[in-house]
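Lab channel / #folding
Pinned by the channel admin:
"Please post every new chain as: sequence first, then the structure tokens as a reply. Keep commentary short and put observations after the output so the thread stays searchable."

First post following the new format, from NK:
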Amino acid sequence: MPTDRATVHVDTTLLIEQFKAAPRPATVREGLRGFKFISTSSYARFEFKKTWIRSLMYLYDRASRVTHVAGLITEINQSFGKQKSNNLTRSLEAWCAFNPPGQAPLPDAAALLRLKTQLKIAILNAYKQWSRLTHHEWDGTGCLRAREAPRQSDDGKIDATVPRCWRTRIQCTIHTFFEENRDLFIQIEQAVAQKADASEQLKAAAAVIRAALVDPRSLCEDKVCQRVGDVLIAIDGNKMSTFAANNPSEWELLSLVLKKPLINPVKGSFVV
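Reply from TO:
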């Protein structure tokens, strides 16, 4: 177990786990319970919005189009191809979070209405719940897309869109964040280059880092920064004593380079 349980920096993966069906939230909370200070990154909040909240929005939108629960399940299964298996998985996990075993059965129309109501409340309160999971949120990247919480317009429509970003209209600090931490980015890029079995995600991140070494403003394109998300989140929390994540294929290398112990409460594992 970690020798220093003072502070821990948590990746998007473990925060999203706490929104899923039992027993996952309790498992993660128990794994983090001994830490006195828990942090994350504003870029993790953006990833949370882009993945989990959008999955809830997908379910809410589809539930508004069908007349019975069976129709919604059919919509989910038919909406995603193999190339979008992560989206399918998240949608099914979101479905399970709002349809736990043992829930009192209702007539089909009432069950659909209950689901829509639960989803609406969850979407509009997602940022409040997110903020309760940690003590602090680092904002080195100044991510604009993380700041805009889901909202409801006067006509009742819910807006959880993810805005676009371009280098011709810079609204974040990711390029200056890169310059301030250039040495750490270089160390990560070199570690990926030396690791023969590095994940495809890490290889893509290393390519982005190499381009940013020439032109840091290249990071200000939204489709570019997304390819280096784990690296941004890790470096943003570099002041913390421990890292926590549920995607070891990326975070084991990041923790090694940044000299942090890594824990994964979902797997009950600890990596020095």
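NK: The first strand starts at residue 7 and ends at 10.
TO: also worth noting, The chain has a mean pLDDT of 90.
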